[in-house]
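TL;DR need structure tokens for one chain.
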Amino acid sequence: MKKLLFIIALVLTVAAASAQSYPPKDEETPRLTFAMQLNVTLGETYSVGQTAHGKRIVIPITGGTFEGPALKGTIVNGGADYQLASADGRRTELEAIYSIRTDDGVYIHVRNRGLIAFDAGREGQPSVYFKAAPRFEAPADSRYAWLNDALFVCAPAPWSAPGTIVLNVWKVE
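>> reply
TL;DR here they are.
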């Protein structure tokens, strides 16, 4: 317990010392490093209908591939993207739950939560905000354990073939 309190006090001391510059210095700004690109194949979308929380939409994840500087493999069939659309259709929350399998046979669980928001944008031009934050669960004793200890963000590529979505993923440094 004393060790935990010491660690918390140390973290708070470091945070207080670094919080003295406003706005933050450039070197304090998180950087993004490209981690991978997911090419996801999708099944037929269906709707549960209007629920107490919004319109529930389900998009099956049927497979695909992924590749990055430190990993490569396939997307396992059987996951889904569970979306919840607002009544006015301007906002959709998403939660995709699926697994990937590296070329050397390691399974990694993925839970990707995000937001799609539609707006009139500047000068009346429509705009779409679509970002998500995947969380990875890799075996702790594997060469992919680094995925467990970092935050990631992703955004769709501006192009995707019908029945697919391409997501670019970055590690927050």
